[in-house]
From TrEMBL, chains A, B, C, D, E, F:
InterPro entries: HD/PDEase_dom, HD_domain, NA-bd_OB-fold, YhaM_exoribonuc/phosphodiest. This is HD domain protein. GO terms for biological process: rRNA 3'-end processing. Gene3D superfamilies: Hypothetical protein af1432, Nucleic acid-binding proteins. SMART domains: HDc (SM00471). It holds the Pfam family HD. Keywords: Exonuclease, Hydrolase, Nuclease. Coiled coil: none annotated.
Amino acid sequence: MAKQINDFQDGDHFKIFALVKDAQVRTTQKGANYLALTFGDQSGEIAGNLWDVTDQQIQDFQSGVVVQVEGQRTSYQGRPQVSITAVRLATVDEPHQPELYVERAPETEDQIKGALRPFVMAIKEPTWRQIVNHLLAKHGETFFQSPAAKTNHHAFVGGLSYHTLSILRLSQSVIQQYPGINESLLYAGALLHDLGKTVELSGAVGTQYTIPGKLLGHISLIDGEICAACQELGIDYESETVVLLRHMVLSHHGLLEYGSPVRPELLEAEVLHHLDELDASIMMMQSALSKVSPGEFTDRLFALDNRSFYQPDENKKK
Amino acid sequence: MAKQINDFQDGDHFKIFALVKDAQVRTTQKGANYLALTFGDQSGEIAGNLWDVTDQQIQDFQSGVVVQVEGQRTSYQGRPQVSITAVRLATVDEPHQPELYVERAPETEDQIKGALRPFVMAIKEPTWRQIVNHLLAKHGETFFQSPAAKTNHHAFVGGLSYHTLSILRLSQSVIQQYPGINESLLYAGALLHDLGKTVELSGAVGTQYTIPGKLLGHISLIDGEICAACQELGIDYESETVVLLRHMVLSHHGLLEYGSPVRPELLEAEVLHHLDELDASIMMMQSALSKVSPGEFTDRLFALDNRSFYQPDENKKK
Amino acid sequence: MAKQINDFQDGDHFKIFALVKDAQVRTTQKGANYLALTFGDQSGEIAGNLWDVTDQQIQDFQSGVVVQVEGQRTSYQGRPQVSITAVRLATVDEPHQPELYVERAPETEDQIKGALRPFVMAIKEPTWRQIVNHLLAKHGETFFQSPAAKTNHHAFVGGLSYHTLSILRLSQSVIQQYPGINESLLYAGALLHDLGKTVELSGAVGTQYTIPGKLLGHISLIDGEICAACQELGIDYESETVVLLRHMVLSHHGLLEYGSPVRPELLEAEVLHHLDELDASIMMMQSALSKVSPGEFTDRLFALDNRSFYQPDENKKK
Amino acid sequence: MAKQINDFQDGDHFKIFALVKDAQVRTTQKGANYLALTFGDQSGEIAGNLWDVTDQQIQDFQSGVVVQVEGQRTSYQGRPQVSITAVRLATVDEPHQPELYVERAPETEDQIKGALRPFVMAIKEPTWRQIVNHLLAKHGETFFQSPAAKTNHHAFVGGLSYHTLSILRLSQSVIQQYPGINESLLYAGALLHDLGKTVELSGAVGTQYTIPGKLLGHISLIDGEICAACQELGIDYESETVVLLRHMVLSHHGLLEYGSPVRPELLEAEVLHHLDELDASIMMMQSALSKVSPGEFTDRLFALDNRSFYQPDENKKK
Amino acid sequence: MAKQINDFQDGDHFKIFALVKDAQVRTTQKGANYLALTFGDQSGEIAGNLWDVTDQQIQDFQSGVVVQVEGQRTSYQGRPQVSITAVRLATVDEPHQPELYVERAPETEDQIKGALRPFVMAIKEPTWRQIVNHLLAKHGETFFQSPAAKTNHHAFVGGLSYHTLSILRLSQSVIQQYPGINESLLYAGALLHDLGKTVELSGAVGTQYTIPGKLLGHISLIDGEICAACQELGIDYESETVVLLRHMVLSHHGLLEYGSPVRPELLEAEVLHHLDELDASIMMMQSALSKVSPGEFTDRLFALDNRSFYQPDENKKK
Amino acid sequence: MAKQINDFQDGDHFKIFALVKDAQVRTTQKGANYLALTFGDQSGEIAGNLWDVTDQQIQDFQSGVVVQVEGQRTSYQGRPQVSITAVRLATVDEPHQPELYVERAPETEDQIKGALRPFVMAIKEPTWRQIVNHLLAKHGETFFQSPAAKTNHHAFVGGLSYHTLSILRLSQSVIQQYPGINESLLYAGALLHDLGKTVELSGAVGTQYTIPGKLLGHISLIDGEICAACQELGIDYESETVVLLRHMVLSHHGLLEYGSPVRPELLEAEVLHHLDELDASIMMMQSALSKVSPGEFTDRLFALDNRSFYQPDENKKK
């Protein structure tokens, strides 16, 4: 398989196909135009500047196209960078489809779909199942494409559904170990908890927050969707049955400071909050640790309170 | 007019009609039953124990009945108390209607209704007006009875609508003074901001939080109602028009720590938040200051960060 | 089986055997002596005052003895209480052994021991296994008796080892679900993380903090024990291998504010912290929820940020 | 009217008169001198570098002079910038007076003075009026020139008096709506609350904090001035009358964390604090929103907790 | 010497002279009047209730009189209490002067005065010395009587001047150890830093906060006094010389949250803040530790963040 | 004596010997290599770039060598910088020893050693003295070389022992002024409190945190060392005697947020914490103030909550 962006070291010469993930026309202090480009493939990203650009190049190399880029890997202020010696658009005979260069969940969409189904069917409370099915049907397509975040954890195609699946798997373990947890409620809450992100985020490529996302947030978005769904389905959205489910999604950030308008006050809501945090933390740490060598610390992870994590020497990893 | 509860001093003998606001059967350390009663009228409240009660008395003197109570005002651990010498149910020939003894807003329901109308009519954006009218119609009756809180500010019959009206009046002043504020949005947001309290609280007498109130809170309750109303009215509840209105109600507590899932990010939302706080603060201070004499400090007010406020000497109040 | 303390309602007459868990000689405001007693069995606790006590009674009814107590259940300031009509020491022919009346872990000591063994054997790193075996041998007896806390979670005989086992079981699920977690390190850390509580707490009955417990805390106690054990075993306690294990125990409270001198900076340390919190939270919620009826909220749980939890109506618990 | 700085877009060529607001001699990494200039007029500011400067240019283009600058508008790291092609001093025949290029309050000094007068006259308490008149006379000139802050809200000529006037107008509305507010105290407090800024800040052009401003702050500065004024006027500065006024100014930041040595404990002090915050917030939001187009968010506003505010689509602004 | 309050144990009978420090008429739940008395002498305090009091007794036993009280020491809810068997006013032939029963500084007023003088004379900057002399002359009498606080540290006659002296002595050590500290500034700041307490507190007996104390606080009180003194002495109170001294007193609480309107920004101000905290902490700990036996913890000390301190076993105290 | 780095002003030409403290190969945006160098001597540091470097130069000018550098002092973004015109390695005939260019404690190693001795001998408790002697012997060499921090206070050769000595001297003053402080405990605690930094930091030149330093921190490192030392010496490390000493070192940061797993609960521990803070603060302020002229503020000091400190005009420093 061809070498990818993260396979190169400082000083290496390379010539690869990659997706232009960001392209900005900038001006040097002295007034010349250049293109500040970000190239990406499934292994990672690298920045590079194209100096003294022509209008044609500005036209060609926009976010979303696939190019062949050639140059040398260097570092600028501690960040890898490519000194571009040549760049051109990929032709139709070459691997030019953008989707080939995008990071994806570790399981395929079909695998995730298949793995989610039994959890939906395990919801025995009919109202909850009806609501879950209604909303999954409404948002299904987006749900399986959407990342779980703009940056941070699960910020890749399918990240949202994969994160949901991981929490459901953890939930299953917890239900088996501790008696007295309402399986239907925990599964229904887990399935819906982040579904509002299909509206909050603009999609898997060049992910941005939408206006409803910024002004309402995914927690109130999904709560509103539940109410509207109930109205459509003829269910009383302020009945205790629905109130329990709404509480699950409203409280899942755990703390008011993190955007939940109420704190968990159900056993299942508290469990969902813990498992959400656990899965997100593991994904972020694994992702960061995969980029460093034994004996090194990762970069500081903003979403984990700016901590950096240590990759122990190989002989410790038994 | 007959003297009321707050007209008496320590040591005074009195005999008044009052509402039983709370009645609890308790046992002394040594095992005898007694009734711990709270009496109230429009002037305030006073506690008193009825010792060695009979089963008939326990039966009779329940929360919500009007009684004639006779006794002496004393103090127990700094709180006024009545040493009961006699108590009996009010007869039908006496002022026995509970509603005579409940604190009320300074304006009548009709006055408040009349004063609110022009503000509703000043909403020129048709979607917002449609939603406001729909929800006021749905909750109208409760809206004009409900207190604005269980304790703290506007905790009296009609408190919710009176608080809403006060904010609207302040809004009008602000709109006149500062150009560029969207009058329709500010009025619509102010009218709806606390409407969820009609569901969150159990009503004006013996106010408690309901289960939906505890598990969801009035902010998400009204947001959910807006979504369901839109669904019913055929309005897209995630259109920018509706999103702006939802943002008004979701953000009105100002800070995540105070239960808003998003902070104000609209000029009108920030103004609403400030006016909500201003009106609530003034009401709490006025209420507390009305109970102390010049030269004294009020009790500590929990909802105002435990501060106590000073009533200056009368000759300072020019 | 005989009825136990929590089987009675207000007004019930009862006559049961129970352990005196606390006995304090007090004086009424007017100067008479009485005994403020707390009775307990495996179902719960109840307080009761013995008025006008004799010196003999003060002598007899001390903390740790088993008595037969007869009386009526009442409530005093919202707390259940017994109006004692008779109390006497249990005889040798009656169930007079204190250990019969103490709350215990849901699994027996042997079951816990048996369940822990495979986890110890799964530690493949020899230094860690050596240290774990050394310290379990040193503290073993206490480890299987000790509660995990003075109050709050797992505050019962065997609570410490049961809590440890629960975390190990959760760890196993997590390891199976996520690749790249060092199983040996996570198990070794989990086994030792709270072992310092054998020194921090005075034991399972009338649990108090010891002086070393108060002045050092269980986190530094176990870290110190690891260092001393290494010194004894000829292991360098500042080698990276041991440093990793020490980091696991030092960081397991997650935040400096909670008494960890360092925050988790290893994947396994972060996972241990989450699972520790998850298990403790579930235990506290389950315990509190078991004491309320459907439709009720629990008392506020101090260790869960003063939240109270809701027990949904029975028909929701499907 | 001539086009001003904020009337140009990226790529536009322009030639305008502007004030040099900041001029710094800098050295490139390779050692050449250049001038980093900031140009300003009543519409806004723009930065630009003058490369390879001569000593004469460094001499000429200092902060405070008016120049004619010609060049092209570009952007550098997201900030507008001018690529200077020519710059020269304005001549006496051209609009060369610095005061023509400075941002000013929306009302003229005379309008503000006229509008303030009735509020001073409405202070009926003679001691307060005497103190207010004394201090306004002492600081008058500066008071009507000074900005209300170095950056943030009302950071323009006359900002301090305009902010004071806005609060007085809001105060008047509040007094009309709520009975029991001491009008004299609220007006006197509002008039003096920020007067210490005349000493804290260096003036309207190139505003800096003075040494007394940094070491004492404007709150203690005005409190000290009140005491000294009383000493001069033969008034007891620790009498209750003066203490009330001092409390108004000392507490107006509301929280100790914001630099008030005491929190508001008078009804009027709490109201002043709220109105101060309200007016400052509105001014900051209006200023930021005036710089963005419908559908955009403003920059993050540091003084409003780093929030950015949304300018709704035009058709929402009805 | 006669035994004092703290010399008695539970169960002891005693008959002593003591000051009535607090006397409140209360009513039992059933309506009888009694006197809740607090007795004090130089060794400590003890509470006791006088049941079924006569009007004459209420008249006689008021705060500030000396009585002979007889009774038995008991405990009520963990606090020592006296079961009063007899109480009468002290006669003129007996030790009836209140000042005999008040806690005092460890050094006499004359010793403290003598020890302070050299520090005043060591102030070489003439303006600072002039201000210090002026204010010490104005408040001298009160300064040597006043406690340093209502409760907490140095809450005894002469506490304020003794605390000031202790800080000066620590200052001298610090000046000797570290070069570059301005001795005049540190001494002048230390002498004035708490002088505002002469106005903030009502005096040494039955210490209360005054109205100016509550509404302004001792920090602003002394700052205002400095300004007024300068006005009287013809010194510019906003000159840098005076600003430095004002900064010393304004910043001495160290943090805005603790009531300083500015944080220390002078070397000497930071040192003063540290020494103020150090002396207050030591005094509080010494006082609390003197009341417990070896092997015990003190009560929780509110002003030390609710910590309790351990008194090690005597043989550890070498 | 030859001029040193901090003796030059902007624009000065200079030619000096200096230590290369940092040397990084970087690439310009356009791809050319250059060396980003930091030069240092006992007066301070200065940065400079060597453009278009040869491989030989990259080889020669590494961190730790002494060079002669010639150039002109300029400023880049407010920081002093040297425009290098020539640089070469120092020869053996020139002052080429790195240790000549390193900042050192104000007293020599021998002076510090001599001054520490009496404090060790003043520890009368034999266990504490034994532990202190054991650990000083073990870490002695490093202890007298190590800085007290990577940056911030005492970040120079010998800083750790000098900081320890300063605290001991302050301790002595405090012990003399306040009775009842356990001299042995305070001295033993002060001597050991920061000794873990010999393991936490990599040494005096190019100071970095070690892996044990990052994962455990110096507080737990020294606590672990005490336990291991006790194990070796046959002392019970959980006896009260040792527990007191361990508490001293564990609690010396004062707050959990600052990394102490327990807060001070001994009089001596609280005193140690205060003196540690006092000495560190004074050192940081003195260092920063020595770099500014009268009338100026220092840079913001991160470790002092980002405050900057004012150097008063010379005529104020009497």
